[in-house]
Amino acid sequence: MVTIVTDNGGPFRSFTFEAFIATHPELAHVRTRGAEPRAERLPRTRVRHPEVRTVVPRRDHDAFTLAERAEDYRIEYNTVRPHEAIAWNRPQEVHLGLADPTIPTFQTKEILPTT
Question: Full-prediction pTM beyond 0.85?
Fold first, then answer.
């Protein structure tokens, strides 16, 4: 089962969206509370990181495609993208103990003296 978490915006309260969820028993729909900041984070993430793919169901997508796209995003988020909150390390590296969440491990350019 795939759980889809949305805010309480109009598109997610529509009859079309409810019908989509109802016709796909492998999906569970959960709405966030009032002004939940995490639900508003994706648009800001897309502005800062245009390579992030949106995981929003469309009429031409079935539940399996949605699950694949969500899995692709999870893999990219945890293994490819560095995170500022953990000193620009990747979550998987920190979780496996390969990186310290307080010490950056990214490559820096060595600036040599000019004289």
Answer: no
Identify which of 29, 33, 34 has the alpha carbon closest to the alpha carbon of residue 57. Answer: 29
CA distances from 53 to 17, 58, 66, 80 (A): 20, 13, 11, 14
| pLDDT, tens digit, 9 for 90 and up, residues 20-61 | 888 988 888 888 765 544 545 555 544 554 554 545 545 556
Tell me which H or E stretch contains 27: strand 27-31
**Angle in degrees, CA 70, 37, 18, rounded to 5:** 55
Nearest to 89 by CA among 77, 99, 74, 75: 99
